[in-house]
Specification:
mainly alpha
Length: 103
Amino acid sequence: DINECVGKAYKKADAELNAAYKQVAAHVKGDDELHKKLVGAQREWIKFRDAECDFVTAGAGGGSAYSMALSACLTTLTQDRTKQLDSYLQCPEGDVSCPITKP
């Protein structure tokens, strides 16, 4: 039951991430270079997420708690990435530390 619950939480977080990514991608659609950087960053983030969760769950050693620990890790990192992507849509004009600024 716990594994099912944690798995559902990850699926929800993943759906929210995909929606946020699509929103950011829509904002950079006309800028091929920025879009390419977004795609590259997202692909590298996925590699990081998977490697980080592999590291974090190493103590579970594939035991009965492994799938729960993995789903929890994936959920947390996915929620963090969603917040990060959402923040890109809130950048004020002139914020050079943000890839998407309002005109």
